[in-house]
Write a structure and sequence with these properties.
By secondary structure, the chain is mainly α. The chain has ten helices and no strands. It binds adenosine-5'-diphosphate.
Length: 190
């Protein structure tokens, strides 16, 4: 059974700290603006944004169990745990919150890593996560400027900032993000 928008908001906001819910509200706002600007479905963008971090505060062991027990992408388990919540979030959005729309589920699933061949809605939600009004990390203004030019330019700037940060910290980069960035650059040149 699908939940109403209000029920979703209640269910999601009650399982995260106020600060993360404020971030989620910012992503909802930015996702709708980007959807309207670039021709995606703003209703789907809003629902995906509400749910994108639903699993962010799940205990690591529970995320691991959901990934293993349901045949989700187990490759993630050898990468940064911060990447797991997107995969788990997509799964629970469908199982626990009755979201059956595959575009919404995919936008949740790929909002952190990106993927090769990102859909319009994937791009909108992923970019909104970078530029929502509450974000104040170094370089966010550049990403916001690029987001005005195109979804692809905005996302390339976003992924570049994540990749640069990981490089500077000598951390492992999830390869799909590099492939996703390269794919976006190729899309600009086609
Ligand atoms: N491609 C990646 N490879 C490895 N770690 C990543 C990658 N993308 C994101 N991360 C890690 O996940 C963290 C959280 O990303 P994100 O889901 O955007 O969270 P938040 O909304 O808390 O900023 C990043 O700060 C980084 O540590």
């Amino acid at each position: 059974m699908a939940l109403s928008r209000e029920e979703l908001i209640q269910a999601v906001s009650s399982q995260m700290p106020a600060k993360r819910w404020k971030h989620t509200q910012g992503v909802m706002e930015s996702a709708v603006i980007l959807a309207e600007k670039y021709g995606a479905d703003p209703v789907k963008a809003d629902i995906a944004a509400i749910l994108h971090d639903v699993a962010k505060y799940w205990p690591v062991a529970e995320m691991e169990a959901v990934i293993r027990d349901n045949g989700l992408n187990a490759e993630l388990l050898s990468h940064d745990k911060q990447l797991w919540h997107s995969e788990v979030g997509a799964f629970v959005a469908e199982r626990d919150y009755g979201v059956s729309d595959s575009e919404i589920i995919n936008a949740i699933r790929w909002h952190t890593s990106g993927r090769v061949g990102m859909s319009l809605l994937d791009k909108v939600v992923c970019l909104a996560d970078y530029i929502e009004p509450g974000r104040d990390f170094p370089g966010v203004e550049h990403i916001r400027e690029q987001a005005q030019r195109s979804l692809e330019e905005g996302l390339i700037a976003g992924f570049d900032s994540t990749i640069s940060l990981l490089l500077s910290q000598r951390r492992v980069i999830y390869p799909l993000t590099v492939l996703s960035r390269n794919d976006l650059i190729a899309q600009l040149h086609n």
